[in-house]
C-alpha cells in the first residue's frame, strides 16, 4: 500500500488579522512550541504508515515560505513534491491536482489523505487511529471523511449528519438554534475537512460530478513546468488552471457522491478559524484570561491578549480580544471575532497595505523590516540567509546606502564586485545595477537607507533572479 498525505495550504487567514496577512497567511503562524501550523500538519502526516510521497498544494508566491518550513523539519519530512497553483480556485481544484499527480507517480491504488495546513490536533495516537480507519474505508473504494464529535453548538463549522459511519448529508454552517438541535440529536459531527480515498476513486467521482474541474486541472498539470533536484515542484499552467470552476470539494463531490463514509472521532482538534480558537491553545489563568507576551492586567477577565513586543496594560475590561503586532493593533469583542474578516476585507478594498504585508516582509532570500520612513527616505533592516542572494536589479527613482551590521556581504555595485564585513558600507546611486549576496555561514544583516522621489517596492527592474522573478 502506498499512502500519499496531501497538505492543502491556501487562503489569507483573514479572521486572524493582524497576525495573518495575505503574503504571510495562517499556515505559517507559529504557535507555543515554536512550530508553525503547517509544520505541525507535516509532522502528523509523516506519522502515518507506508508514506510513499508527501504532496503540498500551495501558491507560487508561498513556495519559499513552505519550503523553508519543510526544511526546518529535516530529516523528519518524507520525500515531497510541491504543486504550485497560479491562483486559488478553491479546494476541488487543489484536490484534483494532488489526485492527478499521485495517480501519475504512485498509481491509481495510491491512498490519498488530504489535510488542511492550518489545523491543530493535540492527540496524535487518536489521530493515527482514526486515520487508520479512514484508510480501511478508502481501500474499499469509499471516500472517507473525519467527523469531529461536537462539544458545543457552534455556528462556525459545517456539519455532517451520519447514521453510524454512513453519511446522510452535509450541512452548511447553521444558525444557533439549528446547531443546538444538531448537538442534541447525537447524529451530527463537525466537518473537519479531512478526506481519505484511492486516487482512482476520486478521479471517477470528479469525472461524474465536476468534470470541468478535472479537465481544466488535468490540462494544467499536463502543460505544467516540472522541476526536480533540490526542490521537486510542478508549476501548474496558469492558462488552463484559470478555466477550473471555483468550487469547494464539499460542494463539487461530497454532497453529490454516494460512496461515502464518516469516521466519528473525539480528539483534540482545533481549526484555528478565529481568535477564540487561537486562544484555546493558551492555558487560561484564574480570571479566564489567556495571555501571550508582556501583558499586565487590573480587573480584567475572560480576555485573550497577545503582544509581539510592546507592553499591554488593561484595566476594568472583560471578554475582549487584543492582538498587538509591530504595525497593527486589533481590539474586538470575543463574541464578534468572526467579523474580523470584514475588517480585513475593508482594508483590502481600501488598498491599505496592512492586509497584505507585515512590517517584517518575508522573501525567498530572507526578510526585510521597515524601521522608519518619511518624505523621500526609508530605512530598512535586511536579513539574508546563508547562501542566498537577492536579484540583480536597478531602481529608477531611488539611491541606496548599505551598512553591514553582522555577517559578510558580497555586493555587485555597477561594474564593481565588493566584499564587505561588519561596519563597512557601500553607496548605490540611482540607476546602478546591484545585487546583495550572503556568502557566509551565518545570517547577513544590513541597514539600508533609501532616498529618492519614489520609494515603492514596485520600483525594481530585475535582470537576473534565482527565484524566477526576473
Short synopsis of the structure:
The chain has eleven helices and 30 strands. By secondary structure, the protein is of the alpha/beta class.
Give a written overview of the molecule.
With 470 residues, the chain is an alpha/beta fold. Helices cover 24% and strands 34% of the residues. It folds into 3 domains: 3-270, Alpha-Beta Complex (Spore Coat Polysaccharide Biosynthesis Protein SpsA, Chain A), CATH 3.90.550; 275-345, no CATH class; 360-464, Jelly Rolls (Sandwich). The longest helix has 17 residues, at 90-106. Strand 18 and strand 19 form a beta hairpin. It is built from 11 helices and 30 strands. Helix 6 crosses helix 7 (211-222).
List the main descriptive attributes of the protein structure presented here.
34% strand; 6-stranded antiparallel β-sheet; 470 residues; Jelly Rolls; 11-stranded mixed β-sheet; Spore Coat Polysaccharide Biosynthesis Protein SpsA, Chain A; 3 domains; alpha/beta
Describe the largest sheet. Answer: 11 strands, mixed
**Ranges with pLDDT <50 over ≥5 residues?**
none
Helical content band: 10-25%
| Alpha-carbon distance between the two ends | 43 Å
CATH A-level architecture of the largest domain: Alpha-Beta Complex
CATH superfamily of the largest domain: Spore Coat Polysaccharide Biosynthesis Protein SpsA, Chain A
Layout: helices, strands, pairs:
Blueprint: E1 3-8, H1 37-46, E2 54-59, H2 63-72, E3 80-85, H3 90-106, E4 111-116, E5 120-121, H4 124-139, E6 143-148, E7 159-163, E8 166-171, H5 176-185, E9 188-198, H6 199-209, H7 211-222, E10 225-227, E11 233-235, H8 238-241, H9 249-254, E12 260-265, E13 269-270, H10 275-279, E14 290-292, E15 295-298, E16 304-307, E17 312-315, E18 320-325, E19 328-333, H11 340-349, E20 360-363, E21 366-374, E22 377-384, E23 392-394, E24 398-406, E25 409-413, E26 416-420, E27 425-428, E28 434-437, E29 444-452, E30 461-464
Parallel strand pairs: 1-2, 1-4, 2-3, 3-11, 6-12, 14-16, 15-17, 16-18
Antiparallel strand pairs: 4-9, 5-13, 6-9, 7-8, 7-9, 10-11, 18-19, 20-21, 21-22, 22-29, 23-30, 24-27, 24-29, 25-26, 25-28
Helix pairs in contact: 3-6, 3-7, 6-7
